Amino acid sequence: MNISNARQVNLWGGVITLVTVVLAVIWAFPLYWGVISSLKPEDEVVRNYIEIWPENLTFQHYVHAITATQIGTWYVNSIAVALGVTLITITSSMLCGYALSQLRFPGRQVLWWLILASFMVPLQALIINHFVLVAQLGLLNTWAGIMLPQLIHPVIIIVYKQFFDQVPKDFREAAVMDSAGEFRILFKVYLPMNWGVTAALSIVCFIWTWNAFLWPFLSVTRTEMMTVTVGITQVNDAFGVYYARELAAAVLAGLPVALAYLLFQRKVTQAITLSAGIKG
Fold first, then answer.
1. CATH fold of 61-279, please?
2. How far apart (Å, rounded) are the C-alpha atoms in residues 133 and 83?
3. CA separation for the pair 87, 79 (Å, rounded)
4. Stated pTM of the model
5. What mean pLDDT, rounded, does the chain reach?
6. pLDDT at residue 275, rounded to an integer
7. Domain limits of the chain?
8. Is 240 left (phi over 0), alpha (psi -120 to 50) or beta?
């Protein structure tokens, strides 16, 4: 490579880097603006000009959100629902993926095609059916009612099946020769090989459930049973909207997910890559 080509490559690299930085700033600015606005007094938030940094830094809105609302209860509800959905979804998807991959039973192919076809039906199209069913079961305003419709994640089943398909058959044959049952083969042979996949899918499933809004909003009417994403909509005042208070509540609602992503960024990226590969 001569000097002119090297300079051209460096130039294009600099342009790409600059464009990437600009796009990153554009993407991150709303997040920065939301956090900074939550640290401003209300009169600064509603000014008709932009202030990149607050004149008077204050944490009063966070204090109000913590002390004057039921955000602690909403956190407990969100944690319980997210953990419950994650545990049930991962366990059932693992069992289903293993059965589809390693077992031969009547209707196996039909079940597989039904799971693939479920991608064609958006969850929002089933909201009415879900609401009627949950109401008839008497599960409105309960954790179970919030959790049940969120247990549908066919992509996790597909990821597990694809992984189990790639495990060499020799492992299964050796376990069968040792008279191991199917559950023992799954939990003693296959599961130890895919702890990374299971951890990645669990983290992403937890984040999906924590961020869910539409179904928890429709299935809960009692304030004390709301999840945090729904509960922050109740942070208002009889005399009007206080934007800084609502932004402070929104920051508190998104903080656990942001921390989870920062701590498990590699696992989250792995799970998204697996999901994107399946959907693609």
1. MetI-like fold (1.10.3720)
2. 23
3. 12
4. 0.81
5. 83
6. 53
7. 3-58, 61-279
8. left
